[in-house]
Amino acid sequence: MTSNEYTIHYKTSLLEYAYKFNVSLACRTFDISRTRYYEIASDFLKYGKAGLLPKAKCPKMPSKIRGNAEKAILDLSLEFPTFGPLRLANELRKKANLSYSSVGVYLVLKRNNLNKKRDRLHRSYLTGSVISLEALRSIKLKPEMHINTDYTGELLGQDSFYLGTIKGIGRIYSQAVIDCNCSFAFAKLYSRKGKDAAIDILSTRVIPFYKAMNIVLKRIITDNGKEYTHHSPSAALKHKYGAFLKGCGIVHSLTKVRCPETNGYVERFHRTILDEFFLIKMRVNEYKSLNEVQRDLDTFMIEYNYRRTHQGRKLGGVAPIVKFVSGIKFPLMIESKN
To answer: CA angle, corner 32, sides to 26 and 33, nearest 5?
Structure first.
């Protein structure tokens, strides 16, 4: 008796025994689970005796990413340890002209015990960094919200963020502004946070840029921090930041209390600056002044806005400037001229 004949005989005996007595007794006698019994019975009803034959196993797929391609992925993850599989796949396609899926890249990282960001950072960690491994482990992801916008300049998110402390420079805060329609962003560093810093980035970076592009800014959303509003409703209208926006014809909206995810775009942008700029640059540079840090940040922002692949829901792998230009609402440009 061949192995196939034995398998058919075994399964038909099982089915006959269950028909003669009951399913529970048959499963106990033949030492199989009820789930397995019903699978066999279903195959027999559908295909007859042919359904009782052993199912052919799918051949094991060999790993497609080996050799130079695997080395290219590992080298790129060493250069950019905070990039995930999708971002690495996009950068690999752009820089090395190698096209692999994010799943394939993930499998390479996992095979080399680098599928976790913490492990990739640890591999690239240099002695003497001002950022400790404990600080890297404490980074937590914040939930994001999907904000619906129709055109560039319709809604901008603004927020302040404490980046860290550098010896000889002191505390560093970032004021960030991002267009929620295209993720085009602005970032400027300050030694303290407050209403003056919040206004400064708008007056020196954001508003001049949109004016040069002949785009009307409609609304800016911020949290309820003291740099943006008074906590007393009666005094909120007298706040210096709110008065500045009103004078520029920009509507000021506030997020829900204790809900930073309401301003999800700028919250996510903070994490990008921390992961892809601050944590990287602090490992390799020794800064003497805030202006030196700002200089490198400006270079990073050019890369971010004009060349960096973006995994955002609205961008799908293109740079923010592409969505920025395609999202310009031309009727607003005509209104601004009047």
So the answer is: 100
